[in-house]
Amino acid sequence: MTEPPSEPGNFWRAIAGLPVRLLKALVGWLLALVILFEEWGWEPLQRALAWVGRLPGLRWAERRIQTLPPYGALALFLLPTLLLLPVKLLALWLIGQGKVFAGTLVILSAKVVGTAIVARLFTLTQPALMRMGWFAKLYGRWTVWKTGLLTQVRASWAWRFARIVKHRMKQRWHQMRAK
């Protein structure tokens, strides 16, 4: 247990900083959930689009994407974000119209499709993107930060509890199917 602050001023500063610490923790957890979703979906969705990319017309497009210069690759990599903005605005409009389920479905669909497209585009453009020093540096920092955050989340009691629940549900499912 932590010791109470020795001076009264420190105590009130600690109390005043509590909302900021709580907000940082909440934002950290929400960000961690988004990152976990992307980690979970990145590889399978990228592989699914790689399979689609084997179709004759798309094979040619993927080869062209791989030959883009660094800034062309960056522009293409950022394009899905811009294209999905109107879809997300539509979702917010639906929610504002009282169609919460439809709006949520649109947001979730856009997230899955967007993650799939960005994952595939990143795989195709990564060599070109890494030729830009600033991008390679930021990507390295991002990777270190993301790994630390995921390590912290996976070490939390909530994560461990969810893994235990998942394991037990899986066991029960297999037991029920065996009968």
How would you describe this structure to a colleague?
The protein is mostly helical and about 180 residues long. It has a domain of about 50 residues. About 90% of the residues lie in helices and about 0% in strands. It has 6 helices and no strands. Helix 1 packs across helix 4. The longest helix is centred in the first third of the chain and has 45 residues. The radius of gyration is 22 Å and the shape is extended. The protein starts with 7 loop residues before the first helix and ends with a helix.
Brief overview, please?
By secondary structure, the chain is mainly α. 88% of the residues lie in helices and 0% in strands.
Topology overview:
Layout: H1 8-52, H2 56-66, H3 70-96, H4 100-129, H5 133-155, H6 157-178
Helix pairs in contact: 1-4, 1-5, 3-4
Q: How many separate helices?
A: 6
Uncertain stretches of 5 or more adjacent residues = none
* Major pleated sheet: none
- Structural class by sheet pairing and helices: mainly alpha
Please write the string of helix (H) and strand (E) elements.
HHHHHH
Which oligomeric state applies? single chain
State Rg: 22 Å
Strand portion: under 5%
Give the helix proportion (percent range). over 70%
Q: Name the average pLDDT.
A: 83
Number of strands: 0
The end-to-end span amounts to 50 Å
3D shape: extended
Search tags:
6 helices; 179 residues; single chain; mainly alpha
